[in-house]
UniProtKB/TrEMBL annotation:
<dbReference type="GO" id="GO:0080019">
    <property type="term" value="F:alcohol-forming very long-chain fatty acyl-CoA reductase activity"/>
</dbReference>
<dbReference type="InterPro" id="IPR026055">
    <property type="entry name" value="FAR"/>
</dbReference>
<dbReference type="GO" id="GO:0010345">
    <property type="term" value="P:suberin biosynthetic process"/>
</dbReference>
<dbReference type="InterPro" id="IPR036291">
    <property type="entry name" value="NAD(P)-bd_dom_sf"/>
</dbReference>
<dbReference type="InterPro" id="IPR013120">
    <property type="entry name" value="FAR_NAD-bd"/>
</dbReference>
<dbReference type="GO" id="GO:0035336">
    <property type="term" value="P:long-chain fatty-acyl-CoA metabolic process"/>
</dbReference>
<dbReference type="Pfam" id="PF07993">
    <property type="entry name" value="NAD_binding_4"/>
</dbReference>
<protein>
    <recommendedName>
        <fullName>Thioester reductase (TE) domain-containing protein</fullName>
    </recommendedName>
</protein>
<feature type="domain" description="Thioester reductase (TE)">
    <location>
        <begin position="7"/>
        <end position="236"/>
    </location>
</feature>
């Protein structure tokens, strides 16, 4: 029986990973480290996971505190029992303030590493980074690269970079697999997603312009938009976590066939509004308008999201594709998932729980 510890529950990606793991395992015990403020929601989500062959246990804790603020009784059990740790807890907001991001993403990861060192039978740490630790680098970004003196678009990218530095520094002592996803969207088959952030902000923007006679492009350049469905991320991660040869490796779970930003924008406009974009509204004007909070809130778009329309990077995922080839797990292209994505958005666009807080 495998014994697992997850941070980041009841977040969407952690929840999807737990669900996938429960499907794969014949028998397992899963500890879920949950913030006190998230206990009620975690219990609600856990009640929906009807897997009677899996033992679930919620552990109250906080990664920003030493020993993750787990009480001594639970600490001893976890140190003795846990074999796999999936560390997903992080701040993912592109507009997050630096001190908050640093406390959770960097100090939190540092605390998790120190905690893990006391686990007796650890087989693997699976750490969730992001492909965007590459920051503002241009050209091809390889999985084995990390520190190339890059600068960053926002505090999210920068603190995730420093967090991965912490993880890689300990890889000789701790058996580790690092996962770097691209921009995660909903399930390729159902469209299910937790929040309408990232590319969904473009749908928010288009929805606000639904009565406009002209839908302009937001940028004249057509750069790579690397979006990946969440089901690819979870299936690939579970496979890589249980493959012996993937210890001490880094994997870009990015789309091997990324779409261009203009093509993606046109596809979303067609699926949502049945319109074709025409002309260009300069990106610098869009950013200027989004400097006003009332416009950001009305459009439901963060200013920082527009920076990814100028991202001139290609995230090589050869290592991941090579290992996943034996599993049959493949990443769906955006063209084949956009309809499901938009239909889910249409159905849930007025659900307040799906909206992110725009400040």
């Amino acid at each position: 029986m495998g014994v697992y510890l997850f941070t980041g529950f009841p977040g969407f990606l952690a929840k999807q990973l737990v669900r996938e793991l429960a499907k794969k395992e014949k028998e397992a015990k899963i500890y879920l480290l949950v913030l006190p403020s998230q206990l009620e929601k975690a219990n609600e989500e856990l009640s929906l996971l009807q897997y009677h062959h899996i033992q679930f246990e919620i552990i109250e804790g906080d990664i920003t505190k030493e020993m993750l603020k787990i009480d001594s009784t639970n600490l001893e059990r976890i140190y003795e029992e846990v074999e796999y740790v999936f560390h997903l807890a992080a701040i993912y907001d592109l507009a997050v303030k630096k001190d908050v991001a640093y406390r959770v993403n960097v100090i939190g990861t540092r605390n998790v590493i120190q905690f893990i060192k006391k686990i007796t039978h650890l087989k693997r740490l699976i750490y969730f980074s992001t492909a965007y630790v590459a920051g503002l680098r241009k050209g091809t970004i390889y999985e084995y690269e990390l520190d190339r003196n890059q600068s960053f678009r926002n505090h999210y990218e920068e603190t995730k970079f420093w967090a991965e530095v912490e993880v890689q520094r300990e890889m000789e002592q701790i058996p580790t697999t690092i996962i770097r996803p691209g921009i995660v969207i909903g399930d390729s088959l159902t469209g299910e997603t937790a929040k309408f952030d990232g590319p969904y902000m473009i749908l928010n923007f288009l929805q606000r312009l639904r009565y406009s006679p002209i839908i302009p492009y937001l940028h004249k350049e057509n750069v790579e938009l690397n979006v990946v469905p969440v089901d690819y991320i979870v299936q690939a991660t579970i496979f890589l976590a249980h493959t012996d040869e993937t210890t001490s490796k880094v994997f870009h779970l990015t789309n091997p066939n990324p779409i261009g930003t203009k093509e993606a924008y046109a596809l979303m406009a067609r699926q949502l509004l049945n319109k074709r974009p025409f002309g260009v509204f300069p990106l610098f004007l869009s950013k200027a308008l989004l400097s006003f909070s009332f416009i950001r809130r009305w459009l439901m778009v963060e200013k920082e999201a527009l920076d990814y329309f100028t991202c001139k990077s290609n995230y090589d995922c050869s290592e991941a594709v090579n290992y996943l080839r034996r599993s049959g797990i493949k990443c769906a292209n955006f063209n084949s998932t956009v309809d499901t994505m938009v239909q889910y958005y249409k159905k849930h666009q007025y659900n307040k729980e799906k909206r992110i807080l725009i400040k």
